[in-house]
């Protein structure tokens, strides 16, 4: 019995170790895109703002969240609750109430800008807040919602992005080491087709519905008059509400939480490009920002400072980089002072030499002028003399 | 010429203009410009990454006691043998030369042979000199050259030995998760955070001027720091929630500390930002009992990988406190040591014991890393251009690529020269390699290289078909008509002749 108990404890410890094994990423980013506009697509705006609230709650700073949103519902004339956006008919959480930083709004939400954002190809005047400044240690969560079809997603009824475009953009990101891992989530009709063309490594993808299948909205708010959230996002958020920064729930737990009864469509997960087992990947690896914090308990610095205070008058200073830098700086100041003295002497000498040179130049010029005047005068005299003779 | 012949000639003429002038012109004007990149050159650079590089570091040997006329040659032989024993990713060597009067001891590598009772070596903390001690027995046994070679390779140039001779990938090995990726410009944001709104002041400017500015100057050939400071009220990074616990593991801290308000790097022009946050809990939260305060200090320091340093104080600040130099100086001392860990120059296990030598070696490592990364960037660019035939490749990209290849040559010339090796040379090489890195990034991330990427070829046909379709139909039908009419007329003429006959 004791052996069984020991084995189970060991197993639990090992599995926990497995869950925490990945420390390859040091920063988290989120790209949240709502590709729809107009009042009747209220739910898409609410989807994205809910995700925004979640990732922000779990610690991803605003500077590392890129929010692309047409942003035309909060202040829409049809909105009974001006300046507010809700994702539930109970209207418990105002998604727009807290500080929301929309990075791309209105007609800035375009395919071109989205591709530029992923590939970071901008003109030099593009502000840092609107760039995805990721590196090889970044985990990126990409969430897209809108109206789509087989292998495409509409952008504001004007253009569409294809699954190939996103796949190629990811390839470019991988080529330039712009991510450690990507978690791609999409809530749209036939969403699973959108990740079918991915070919870059370390991309995990989840979609709300498979080919020839629609994604549905969850419920409507009678007073708002339109659907306020989509089913897939609703149940994702329901799961996320139980997550805190110290949660040990994994992405597999999230995937297991989706059922056909809830979502009314077949949620798809693509793991073949992803190296890790989703059951060992914490949800907070993508949805939050959990910083590794290491205690620095070496007292060498303290001792160095104490010693330096004690031995300020003696020349025997302790080995500390700051002490070395201060010493070097003092030496430089002293040598500069000496040099400047020499410079002053040299400068006066140079000035003196210059003045001599200047004087000689001036006198030379004067002499030339005198000779010229003398010659002209002599010439005139000779001419006068000969004219008188004739 | 008959009317029919004229008509035929005109039709042919129009068609010829259409085919030989119009179509090529249309093709030319609608073709995406793709600058001819030196693809083969870049491919060969990628396949044989270090063939043009042979890093040579000159070292000058002098002897204080005995006169060894040919010791440098003997050391050179031993150094070469030692380096041959391990083949790493980069060829590198030392050029051992006799000490001359013009050698600058501060900037060049000097080995001093000193007679002593034992055999040993030392690298002083404040210089680049390597002092090798020997005794008379070692002279008799002729051990000095080997011992000097070993000291130089394994200790003075330990970093090079580790990265160039042992590891396989210079780039990967130089990065660890604690340190930021090397960049010549780093911003340092120093904040004082307090959990409540009680007024607080700090003497940060005089403290930094006295203690941190010399360090900034000292390290400026490697990294340029820009600094800003600020006080943040009503923010204790949520540490107040830990006030009740006597012990806090790194997991508790990781899950509690909220750095999101301090992580906004958007306000600085530098790409990389490091932080130093000095945090005081609010009065409502009370003391943080998990902080082990010592007799010296009431705070503990924590490193956050690639982010910076957190200095967490045990007790809240009293009303209207002024934090003086006495409080701030030990923090700056500690932070400066940690800064080297965050820059990748030291690790928590191994401290910076020989700063001059380590900084110099780090410069060389970064030069090679920049060269490797820029080659990788150029290779990625080539792959990208080959993968997307519809993508535009502007002239500026070609200019940048050429500039990059030229810069690489300049860097190679500097580091390959066996007689160049002072501080100025390594600084210059690092500067050029940083520029090379930047130019390659500019080439890869050119903003025009995205516009046509998602613009399919059939769009071009769709746009031009309404204009060119009718034109083509008229041309072709006109030409066919002209020929048909001729045939008809010829056949009718033949018929007329037959009837006459």
From TrEMBL, chain A:
The active site is at 147, 189 (nucleophile). One of its GO terms (molecular function) is GPI-anchor transamidase activity. Coiled coil: none annotated. The keyword Signal applies. Keywords: GPI-anchor biosynthesis, Membrane, Signal, Transmembrane, Transmembrane helix. The keyword Transmembrane applies. The chain crosses the membrane at residues 367-386. GO terms for biological process: attachment of GPI anchor to protein; GPI anchor biosynthetic process; proteolysis. Residues 1-21 form the signal peptide. Gene3D superfamilies: 3.40.50.1460. It holds the Pfam family Peptidase_C13. InterPro entries: GPI_transamidase, Peptidase_C13. GO terms for cellular component: GPI-anchor transamidase complex. Pathway: Glycolipid biosynthesis; glycosylphosphatidylinositol-anchor biosynthesis. Belongs to the peptidase C13 family. This is LAFE_0D07360g1_1. It comes from Lachancea fermentati.
From TrEMBL, chain B:
Pathway: Glycolipid biosynthesis; glycosylphosphatidylinositol-anchor biosynthesis. It is a multi-pass membrane protein. It is found in: Endoplasmic reticulum membrane. InterPro entries: PtdIno-glycan_biosynth_class_S (IPR019540). One of its GO terms (cellular component) is GPI-anchor transamidase complex. GO terms for biological process: attachment of GPI anchor to protein; GPI anchor biosynthetic process. The chain crosses the membrane at residues 9-27, 461-483. Coiled coil: none annotated. Keywords: Endoplasmic reticulum, Glycoprotein, GPI-anchor biosynthesis, Membrane, Transmembrane, Transmembrane helix. Its main location: endoplasmic reticulum. Belongs to the PIGS family. This is LAFE_0F14576g1_1.
């Amino acid at each position: 019995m004791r052996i069984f108990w020991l084995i189970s404890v060991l197993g639990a410890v090992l599995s926990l170790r497995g869950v925490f094994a990945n420390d390859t990423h040091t920063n988290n980013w989120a790209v949240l895109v709502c590709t729809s506009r107009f009042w009747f697509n209220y739910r898409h705006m609410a989807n994205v703002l809910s995700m925004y609230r979640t990732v922000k709650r779990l610690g991803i700073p605003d500077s590392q969240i890129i929010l692309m949103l047409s942003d035309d519902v909060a202040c829409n004339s049809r909105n009974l609750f001006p300046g507010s956006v809700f994702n539930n008919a109970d209207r418990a959480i105002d998604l727009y109430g807290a500080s929301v930083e929309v990075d791309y709004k209105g007609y800035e939400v375009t395919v071109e800008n989205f591709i530029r954002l992923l590939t970071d190809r901008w003109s030099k005047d593009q502000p840092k807040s609107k760039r995805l400044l990721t590196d090889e240690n970044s985990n990126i969560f990409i969430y897209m919602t809108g109206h789509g079809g087989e292998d495409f997603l509409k952008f504001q009824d004007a253009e569409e992005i294809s699954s190939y475009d996103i796949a190629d953009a990811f390839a470019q990101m991988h080529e330039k080491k712009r991510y450690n891992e990507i978690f791609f989530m999409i809530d749209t009709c036939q969403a699973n087709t959108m990740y079918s063309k991915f070919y870059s490594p370390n991309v995990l993808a989840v979609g709300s519905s498979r080919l020839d299948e629609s994604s549905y909205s969850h419920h409507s708010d009678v007073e708002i008059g339109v659907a306020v959230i989509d089913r897939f996002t609703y149940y994702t958020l329901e799961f996320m509400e139980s997550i805190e920064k110290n949660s040990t729930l994994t992405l597999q737990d999230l995937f297991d939480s989706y059922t056909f009864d809830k979502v009314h469509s077949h949620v798809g997960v693509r793991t073949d490009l992803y190296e890790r087992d989703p059951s060992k990947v914490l949800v907070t690896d993508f949805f939050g920002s959990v910083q590794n914090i290491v205690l620095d308990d070496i007292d060498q610095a303290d001792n160095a400072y104490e010693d330096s205070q004690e031995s300020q008058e003696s020349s025997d200073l302790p080995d500390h980089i700051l002490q070395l830098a201060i010493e070097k700086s003092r030496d430089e100041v002293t040598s500069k002072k000496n040099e400047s003295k020499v410079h002053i002497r040299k400068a006066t000498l140079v000035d003196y030499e210059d003045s001599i040179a200047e004087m000689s130049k001036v006198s030379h010029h004067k002499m030339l002028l005198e000779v010229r005047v003398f010659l002209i005068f002599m010439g005139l005299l000779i001419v006068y003399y000969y004219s008188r003779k004739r | 010429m008959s009317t029919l012949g004229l008509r035929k000639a005109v039709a042919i003429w129009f068609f010829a203009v259409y085919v030989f002038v119009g179509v090529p012109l249309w093709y030319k004007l609608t073709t995406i410009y793709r600058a001819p990149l030196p693809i083969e050159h870049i491919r060969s650079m990628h396949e044989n990454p270090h063939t043009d590089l042979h890093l040579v570091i000159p070292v000058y040997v002098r002897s204080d006691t005995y006169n060894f006329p040919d010791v440098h040659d003997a050391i050179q032989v031993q150094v070469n043998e030692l380096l041959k024993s391990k083949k790493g990713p980069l060829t590198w060597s030392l050029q051992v030369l006799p000490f001359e009067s013009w050698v600058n001891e501060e900037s060049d590598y000097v080995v001093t042979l000193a007679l002593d009772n034992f055999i040993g070596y030392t690298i002083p903390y404040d210089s680049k000199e390597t002092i090798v001690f020997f005794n008379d027995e070692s002279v008799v046994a002729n051990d000095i050259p080997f011992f000097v070679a070993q000291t130089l390779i394994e200790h003075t140039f330990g970093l090079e030995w580790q990265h160039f001779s042992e590891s396989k990938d210079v780039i990967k090995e130089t990065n660890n998760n604690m340190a930021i990726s090397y960049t010549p410009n780093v911003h340092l944001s120093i904040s004082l955070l307090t959990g409540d709104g009680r007024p607080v002041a700090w003497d940060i400017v005089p403290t930094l001027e006295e203690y941190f500015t010399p360090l900034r100057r000292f390290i400026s050939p490697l990294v340029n720091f820009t600094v800003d400071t600020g006080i943040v009220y009503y923010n204790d990074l949520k540490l107040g929630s830990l006030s009740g616990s006597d012990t806090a593991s790194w997991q508790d801290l990781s899950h509690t500390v909220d750095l999101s308000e301090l992580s906004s790097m958007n306000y600085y022009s530098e790409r990389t930002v490091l932080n130093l946050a000095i945090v005081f809990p609010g009065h409502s939260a009370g003391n943080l009992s998990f902080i082990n305060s010592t007799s010296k200090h009431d705070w503990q320091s924590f490193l956050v990988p690639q982010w910076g340093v957190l200095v967490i104080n045990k007790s809240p600040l009293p009303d209207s406190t002024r934090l003086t130099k006495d409080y701030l100086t030990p923090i700056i001392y500690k932070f400066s040591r940690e800064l080297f860990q965050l820059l990748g120059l030291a690790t928590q296990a191994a401290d910076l014991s020989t700063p001059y030598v380590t900084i110099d070696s780090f410069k060389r490592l970064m030069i090679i890393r920049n060269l490797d990364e820029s080659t990788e960037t150029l290779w990625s660019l080539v792959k990208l251009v080959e993968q997307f035939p519809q993508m535009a490749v502007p002239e500026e990209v070609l200019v940048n690529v050429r500039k990059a290849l030229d810069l690489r040559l300049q860097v190679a010339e500097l580091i390959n020269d066996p007689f160049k090796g002072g501080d100025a040379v390594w600084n210059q090489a690092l500067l050029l390699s940083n520029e090379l890195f930047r130019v390659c990034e500019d080439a890869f991330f050119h903003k025009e290289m995205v516009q046509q990427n998602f613009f399919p070829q059939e769009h071009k046909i769709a746009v031009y078909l309404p204009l060119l379709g009718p034109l083509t139909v008229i041309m072709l039908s006109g030409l066919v008509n002209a020929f048909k009419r001729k045939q008809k007329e010829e056949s009718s003429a033949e018929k007329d002749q037959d009837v006459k006959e």
